[in-house]
Structure formats: C-alpha cells, structure tokens
Amino acid sequence: MKNHITIVGLLFLASVSLGVNAGQKPKATPTPVENSATQAQAQSLSININTAQVADLVRLKGIGEAKAKAIIEFRQANGNFKAVKELEQVKGIGAKLVEKNRSLIVL
Description:
single chain, mainly alpha, DNA polymerase, domain 1, two-stranded parallel ribbon, 5 helices, elongated
C-alpha cells in the first residue's frame, strides 16, 4: 500500500509539472546575423545603373522596357550616374520610383 501511494504521488507531481510546462510559450528563436553568403546574395540582386542593360533594369520595381531604354539613353547622353537621385532626371522616373528601388541600385 505504501508503494502504491508513492507511485501515485510521483505520477501526480509529474503530471502537474508537465501541465505547467505545456502552458508556457515557446522561447523566441533569435534572428540569425547576416553572414557573408547572405550579403553576397544581396549584392547579386543589386543592379548597377551605370552598367546594366535592359534585361537587368527591368528587374527594378516599376521599370519596364521603355523606362529601361530611357535610362540607358540618358546614361549614354550624359555619362555615368554619380548619385542614385540622378535617375529622377530620366523621363518617366520620379522620386517615388527611385525610393522604391534605392536598396537594389548601386553605382
């Protein structure tokens, strides 16, 4: 009888312990630090507006074939872009469009 009470007591303690842990929220997993592979991938997604061709430029948000050609024509007529903001001088490209793509554009 004494063994029976001890076993029941242990089972009770185990079930209470499991019940408390089951109600807890899982710990948040920390966000991994960007490694060199991730940085390299981000750079491969970048578009150099001074060397990009139409096929590359159309990857930018809101840039179709006509605007891509306009960028190239502007670059040929005026030389390389010295700042991303200079894209606003291309016909059909405004400040909002430049801002949407700023993280993808490199010089």
